[in-house]
Amino acid sequence: MQEHFYTYKEKFDLEFGDHLEGFTLSYHTYGQLNKDKSNVIWVCHALTGNADVFDWWNGLFGDEALFNPNDHYIICVNVLGSCYGSTGPTSINPKTSKPYYYTFPNISIRDIVNSLNLLREDLGIKKINTLIGGSLGGQQALEWAVLYPTLMENLIICATNSKHSSWGIAFNETQRMAIESDPTWKEETDTAGQTGLKAARAIAMLSYRNYSTYEATQSENGNETTDSFKASTYQQYQGDKLTKRFNAYSYWTLSKTMDSHNLGRGRESVEKALQSIQAYTQVIGITSDVLFPVSEQRFITQHIPNVTYEEITSLYGHDGFLVETYKIAAAISAFFKQKNKKRVLI
């Protein structure tokens, strides 16, 4: 694995009317480009993810996995607005020589994709063999496939949607309300809103998992517990865990980014946008996902011309796209085999 930084020094116009005076993207690569640069696997990460895909998607990506550095050139980029090396709210604003904090502009999925595409051009990559992402990463992958329909040969999206739902927006707004309730939220410091972020993450866990997940993993062993329940300590643990690696500004920013995701914006319709995708596409849904229910993936499948659909059975709800890596790897392997069969028939 190699960590790299790409710096764009020109004015970068944003979809909602603001701009950045340039930006930096942190990204990781694994493996080597082959001679014709045809082995590129580009990964788009989820809301609190980072560029180290071998860490958070282990089992699907790794030295012995389906996507491995021996066969592929794998690239994953930390998105704008995040806090893992790319330009975000705690970065220095060149106009003020101080961190952006609350002045960091609203960014859209389309803005993120435009920044990724600038990096791709800088790397001289003219074709992406496979573009893959889940959740917020899937939103990026879909937007990229609409903006540049001939760029990627294969498109794989997991547990995502073509526009963010009212249900998802409500969850995100509730989390932002939790951050707002933190008395430190309006302070201009790197750690502002961390207690609120802890509560926000606990709220999010209820959408990432589901009733059955908690019953199976957090139930008490007996009948005598009256306090310090497993479910209670689990929520505290998950909140603490995130505050040690993320900040409230980036969480706020990227949750807003997710809310504004809509493939139909500025286009004829969501359906028409999906119909413009030319990549051979696999859509994967998680049966127990309550945040991005399978109805959203089925809708996507109905409108992409060259597509297959797979549902993964999982106890883990939305997080199933991160947990069930071996099931997903098997589904993707079958997807590629089916594609090769079609080629033989043609």
UniProtKB/TrEMBL annotation:
Active site feature: S135, D289, H318
Localization per Swiss-Prot or TrEMBL: Cytoplasm
Known EC number: 2.3.1.31
Stored SUPFAM superfamilies: alpha/beta-Hydrolases
Binding site for substrate: R201, D319
Catalytic activity field: L-homoserine + acetyl-CoA = O-acetyl-L-homoserine + CoA
Summary of subunit composition and partner proteins: Homodimer.
Name of the protein described by the UniProt record: Homoserine O-acetyltransferase
